[in-house]
Amino acid sequence: MADTVVFIDSDVTIDLLAKREHYTGAAALFELVERGDIAGCTTPVVLANIEYIVAKYSNKTKARATLQALLKRIAVLTMDHSTVQMAVNSGFSDFEDALQYYAAEKGAVDFIVTRNTKDYEQGSITVLTAEQFVELHGAAEEPEV
């Protein structure tokens, strides 16, 4: 079982799925998850974002299949009343980022991996891009998602 727990934000997962500009870093990150070197996690908000985007650019069947594949690889953090209350009362300028951050904090996450590192500057959890994380924690080959 992996000792390092990593919250994976929407943009990183979408980079992997859509093979966008930052695909290589996202693919290497997910390979670390696949190998069991790290434990990946996300939130229901991220899954909703991914489902919406995949359904919009493909179809609902592919969107649900994508979520099923992700759920085999990563855990889902809990978002409850106290998570929402902390987000509402926080100094984060973006409410969604605050929700993600406090869910990660409550889930004892070691790193937040996102392309939008500035969005999480006020927190105490280390925030890195996928490329930065992979550089620090070992490169890997592309996973099959």
Walk me through this protein's architecture.
The chain has a single domain (5-137), classed as 5'-nuclease (Rossmann fold, 3-Layer(aba) Sandwich), CATH 3.40.50.1010. Helix content is 53%, strand content 11%. The chain is built from 7 helices and 5 strands. It has a 5-stranded parallel beta sheet with strand order 3-2-1-4-5, sandwiched between helices. Helix 1 crosses helix 2 (23-35), helix 3 (44-57) runs antiparallel to helix 4 and helix 5 crosses helix 6 (95-106). The chain is globular, with a radius of gyration of 14 Å.
Write a compact overview of the structure shown.
53% of the residues lie in helices and 11% in strands. The model has no long low-confidence stretch (mean pLDDT 93). It contains seven helices and five strands; from the N terminus they run βααβααβααββα.
CATH superfamily, please?
Answer: 5'-nuclease
Q: Taking all residues together, what is the mean pLDDT? A: 93
Instruction: Count the E strands.
Output: 5
Tell me the structural class: alpha/beta
Q: What is the H/E string?
A: EHHEHHEHHEEH
Neighbour order of strands in the largest sheet: 3-2-1-4-5
**Can you tell me the residue ranges where pLDDT is under 50 for at least 5 consecutive residues?**
none
What count of structural domains? Answer: 1
Give the number of helices.
Answer: 7
β-strand amount: 5-15%
Taken from the alpha-carbon principal axes, the silhouette is globular
Task: Tell me the name of the CATH class.
Answer: Alpha Beta
Largest sheet: 5 strands, parallel
Determine Rg (CA atoms, Å).
14 Å
Q: CATH architecture, please?
A: 3-Layer(aba) Sandwich
